[in-house]
């Protein structure tokens, strides 16, 4: 692990501090897993810790140890602001620019507390202490490495192990993505030795289906469109689809991956209309060396990783889809050459 000013951070953490730990907006398994793992770890050294999330997170993650202690800024804005204002140290996990946390970003910028970044996304902002590695498959794996570098792996109990495993499992697509490494599996083996029950965690995350989610999945698959010459599939959900079927945060998690389950397809995209504001949320996934991070940055004001990225469009759904389709001919040669 390489973190800037690591020895100074160790010294800073040698005495009890007030610590705020932040995930990004719309936190996923890696964001919640990494922040809760860090929360449990730092509390072992008598630090006063709070996880502050910009908004709520999916129901299928609320089983995680201390998930109920997370302060949701959308619901508790004054408390969230106070925690950040009073913090001696701020940990920034699974995102690398304060633009990803809405109003919390302004509060973080105003805070004089040193900021600690642990993240695996490209082009990070500059913080006081930085562990940034785009080759890492999950921030949770980086949290494990951080604990190891601190010389405190023996402090990883079942609670911490469950949190780290959840983030690693979800951000690697169940350990299927290409950046899943031998180190990833060695860490998983250690987490299992420390009490992770793989079947239970998998069930909590994957088997918490609701009627709304299944109805939305049915609509999504009905909208699934194939473009064989570009080895591309896309799907969409409109605002009325979401509202009429009781949409809750997290209900569409993983839908985009269905396009990649089709033989010989290597690029899958889902377009989802926001339920309140007039924009389209876009999730992109790929196989092989087709870089959806680059695609999203160039065309949809987004970014992420080579095989998993997000973006947005301020056009209508119809305009967005037509624009997307118009881009594919420029990528057809590259898409045709991808080997999987």
Automatic annotation (TrEMBL):
Under the heading SUPFAM superfamilies, the entry gives:
DHH phosphoesterases
**What Gene3D superfamilies does the entry give?**
3.10.310.30, inorganic pyrophosphatase (n-terminal core) (3.90.1640.10)
MF terms per GO, please? nucleic acid binding
User: Which residues does the UniProt record annotate as the domain DDH?
Assistant: 18-168
The residue ranges of the DHHA1 domain are 244-322
User: One Pfam family of this protein, by short name?
Assistant: DHHA1
The UniProt entry, under InterPro entries, shows: DDH_dom (IPR001667), DHH_sf (IPR038763), DHHA1_dom (IPR003156), Oligoribo/pAp-PDE_c-di-AMP_PDE (IPR051319)
What is the protein name given in its UniProt record? Bifunctional oligoribonuclease/PAP phosphatase NrnA
